[in-house]
From TrEMBL, chains A, B, C, D:
Phylogenetic placement of the source organism: Bacteria, Bacillati, Actinomycetota, Actinomycetes, Propionibacteriales
Name of the protein described by the UniProt record: Kynurenine formamidase
InterPro entries xref list: KFase/CYL, KFase_sf
Top-level division of the source organism's lineage: Bacteria
UniProt-listed GO biological process terms: L-tryptophan catabolic process to kynurenine
Gene3D superfamilies the UniProt entry points to: Putative cyclase
Amino acid sequence: MTGRSPTEAEVLGYVESLSNWGRWGPEDQLGTLNLITPAVRRKAASLVRHGATVSLARELAPVAEPGDAFAPPQRYMLFTGEGLADEHRVRQHPAGRESDSARVHGASEYIGMVFHGFNVTHVDALSHVFWDRRMYNGKPPELVNSLFGASSHAVTAAGDGIVTRGVLLDVAAARGVEWLEPGTGVTPVDLELAESRQGVQVREGDAVLLRTGHGLSRARLGPQDPNVHGQPGWHPAALPWLHERGAALIGCDAGVDVLPCDYPALSMPVHVIGIVTMGLWLVDNLDLEAAASTAERMRRWEFLFTLAPLRLTGGTGSPANPLAVF
Amino acid sequence: MTGRSPTEAEVLGYVESLSNWGRWGPEDQLGTLNLITPAVRRKAASLVRHGATVSLARELAPVAEPGDAFAPPQRYMLFTGEGLADEHRVRQHPAGRESDSARVHGASEYIGMVFHGFNVTHVDALSHVFWDRRMYNGKPPELVNSLFGASSHAVTAAGDGIVTRGVLLDVAAARGVEWLEPGTGVTPVDLELAESRQGVQVREGDAVLLRTGHGLSRARLGPQDPNVHGQPGWHPAALPWLHERGAALIGCDAGVDVLPCDYPALSMPVHVIGIVTMGLWLVDNLDLEAAASTAERMRRWEFLFTLAPLRLTGGTGSPANPLAVF
Amino acid sequence: MTGRSPTEAEVLGYVESLSNWGRWGPEDQLGTLNLITPAVRRKAASLVRHGATVSLARELAPVAEPGDAFAPPQRYMLFTGEGLADEHRVRQHPAGRESDSARVHGASEYIGMVFHGFNVTHVDALSHVFWDRRMYNGKPPELVNSLFGASSHAVTAAGDGIVTRGVLLDVAAARGVEWLEPGTGVTPVDLELAESRQGVQVREGDAVLLRTGHGLSRARLGPQDPNVHGQPGWHPAALPWLHERGAALIGCDAGVDVLPCDYPALSMPVHVIGIVTMGLWLVDNLDLEAAASTAERMRRWEFLFTLAPLRLTGGTGSPANPLAVF
Amino acid sequence: MTGRSPTEAEVLGYVESLSNWGRWGPEDQLGTLNLITPAVRRKAASLVRHGATVSLARELAPVAEPGDAFAPPQRYMLFTGEGLADEHRVRQHPAGRESDSARVHGASEYIGMVFHGFNVTHVDALSHVFWDRRMYNGKPPELVNSLFGASSHAVTAAGDGIVTRGVLLDVAAARGVEWLEPGTGVTPVDLELAESRQGVQVREGDAVLLRTGHGLSRARLGPQDPNVHGQPGWHPAALPWLHERGAALIGCDAGVDVLPCDYPALSMPVHVIGIVTMGLWLVDNLDLEAAASTAERMRRWEFLFTLAPLRLTGGTGSPANPLAVF
């Protein structure tokens, strides 16, 4: 895109032009993950040349942050290592029962969270978004209900994990800035600039990870509410490019969609058209700082990418710790 | 072990003889994960010959099961695809705010769980168990407290993921049974029998995954409370063997420790000596049925193993979906 | 009712004949609580002759029980009195911050529950049940949605508390049995038998509390799943009687509706017709054993009744500890 | 107090001079609630002259507020009235199972909260605070542990409810201000000024409710974090006065203790000396605006006070909706 942004009508046109409905059969729940073939995985594994692993996830701390739409993640200790010498101490077995030995104790906790939102690193299943009262592949949204969660298009569709080539496109570096300002949407011009700088080409089956430098700005300025202050992200104009290249998954160090968004009818167009139209799997809220440093040092922006969603029955996504193995 | 089980005194002796305290420095929090070098990872990646991925985790459903020491996993939908045509319907944006478009809706949920216990597939961090009022490497247990969780030895120590060679030892198959009965402890004799049948040798840095057939018995008979009915598992007599071979991580399709346990002073000796003495990382409650079938079909029981714990600040472990990539 | 039970068609007829829709205006959310006038409350207060208070609630323990439709109540301690002498102990202030004094510590917890169901003593707001896609007073059910909870007919309608005369009708004692067997539905014959034995008459504005002896059978036999084993309770044939007498609230030591129920179209007819048609407030799962003993001892089955629901914004009910003051 | 505040040494002296340890026996868990005799309750009931009930609690909404030390209250709908016409709608029974009737649906929710803190109206049990490693009556703090919660001094000690005379002391009105500024501690001079203006005298067994006008300032200025901005409240200098008068319970429309506090060794001295030394029951975060208006209108600041804590097994307190019945 050298010049103008697509009009809202043009973006709405993607609902037809980028559609993958029916492409992999009427019952398909995998969407673009179908593009990750065994051959793609074999090639991806061959990228492990150094043997270094780098997490692409933020830490998941039980603290409130700006932009939380819901309660912050929670952690409540069930038992701890405190007071083991106390006279009235209950001997707590690691498995949660009373220990039969005075010498053995354990620690355990309850964790809880709403992983969707702007803070937790997570993957969206294809049941996360509805457009015109349809899910990906035309399924009715009532299949996602209070009692069963997502009885179709759950995250368990990807239960065997997402293992493919990861390509980190460092658009902040390509543009020569520390980070893209909130409201900056990344378009094919940026992506190809980064490809060119890095000597890498996105191809079919890739996990395409966009570095906007948001992790650095969060570290420097503190987290800010994207609904108030905006965030950088994928511009919907990148969707045809991703469709053509055959991306299997996209991620971003902010919340995927650029905010504020110029297309009110679509609200969060990359989520809407990506998930519903294309069946594209999205990963929100990555931390790409460590991976970008490693890539820069090794002069190599491709690696083995793994993401193993929790096998949450009926889940509309999952918190995740995606890895890059260089 | 051809003959007798070790006495309790002998097992207690492992606390000295198998100790890794200080081996990787006084501040080490990685324990046996230190054995996974870049070279080990490179070799592991080279095992991806077919490109098939198989989950090693059970599904994580919000239902009560026998053996739950605490509340079952929880899932509460925050908004769903129900009633999108209702007159009073709130347009719910995927990011958790009200949508500015009548055509866009989303679904989201709260999830919560106590992952330790007998049902959720999870990894134990080295802060999960205390022996004689010490954690691995001699640290005081009060470092694990209610306010901060594990302020040392948290699961975040493995935040960059565990990527290594996985070896599935199918002891049920080696013994020619569908599954090992509860109370059956697996010893080096069994392990070497399985190695021999499978033509594979456990070596330094491996993730060693014990198949007892428990997944099959759970499917056939339904889940049962291991505190009442027992479970098969690793016998503490296997610990010196694991130490000698240099296992980096062990897992089991039941809860790792054989139950009931003959060593009351130790309560769950593989947890106690494994975690506290050896700094060994344990994965409880795997589902190895699919991986065993794949391995049998391919006649290959080694693969690329990945486990990416959630980066839970202060966590004493994490729910997980470990993968085998063949 | 001396003879036959009403037919399903007759019970369905109550939807018309017992309707309070519009009786207190088109926007009314109080239903039968309108019958509790200041004069009724003054009279109720005059019943305090001894000054004894008795709880009418079960204990609320964080344990699983048969009949739980959802996760059991939860309690997770945030900090405790354990290990106050530990070297690494964090000084925990009662208000949840670090204490500035080494001599001050506190204890606190998270509590969570699904109060509706068969175990927790709770009051149902008029937003709890829908019949033919309508709430009490004809309001549309979509007013109860995931984002806001009950945006009409919430429990906060009764936020200033329910203070009135309580009448305990001990039907088990009237029938001369320890408890009514599951499946036994209490009809006007029973109610008038109890009135007669006790020398009391239900009148307008009363809280009518039915003792079936279920508390005793729970204590004796342990709790049982009412969906499997049934429960005693109010028979729908009692509804016209309650309507005529002007009961403001009814309660029961089991879950209000007799189970199994002979009226499949209505599923739980006392809940459906009581709440939706009559605007009657229900209290499920009382413990009436202590109150019945006190009443028997004092030969007085009327008292000051108080129930103060938590002021849960959007709540469809509330856990409660109703009191009898004799 | 006309003049100087007590020194820290003087306040520390209250630990001896105001002690109720042993006063009601070595096993007492009721503390000052012992002062509420049946005669006190009878007299309190006789104060119901009009028959009006007024809640003394704030609304309990699932939203974050400044001063939350922990996650805000949570409400997750389990099923709702949305989409009852949807083709795939699950018929949800009020009791949490699938309904056997297409005409019956229900709504239900999960609620969760940390009630201690600065926002939820709640009562503190005598297990909530420790001083010099002792609870009220000298019990060891380890009796409050992670596994059992408060195994002594739990809120269930008051399970039969607190029913007594309530006296609202409107110190803001007595001082002729809209509200007391944060940091303003209320002393006997203020209390007696209010008594005198209102023509009422605190006497043995009373629930003494201090109105600082904090509810009005919250409404006007929005909630503020008391740890940052302070709050008005009871000055520790009022403790001897409360002891002498025989208050059974005290409450406040802010968080009881004035903040900031001038006595660092005691941190929150009214909590510490009130709860631990005196066995005094505290109610934090009341909303006294409606009650004050009613009292002003009726020219009567005494009423029947009821508080029925949830019977939380092991609870260190309870959320509550205390009532004033005029």
